[in-house]
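This part of the workshop introduces the protein records we will be handling. An example says more than a description, so a record of this kind follows.
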Amino acid sequence: MALAGGTYAAAQLVPVAAGVVVALLAWRLGADVAAELGLPAGREPESLPPGRV
């Protein structure tokens, strides 16, 4: 907090930034695992026609 200041808002910056970094890393990890497994890039299942979930 020495860099950001001593306020409550400054204390919230570190957990918010850490949450953003964790979310981005999890998203990339999921994309890399999906690519490794050869899964399709889209969210649509291949067994259903487009538009039907």
Q: What stands out?
A: Residues 8-37 form the longest helix (30 residues). The mean pLDDT is 81. The chain is about 55% helix and 0% strand.
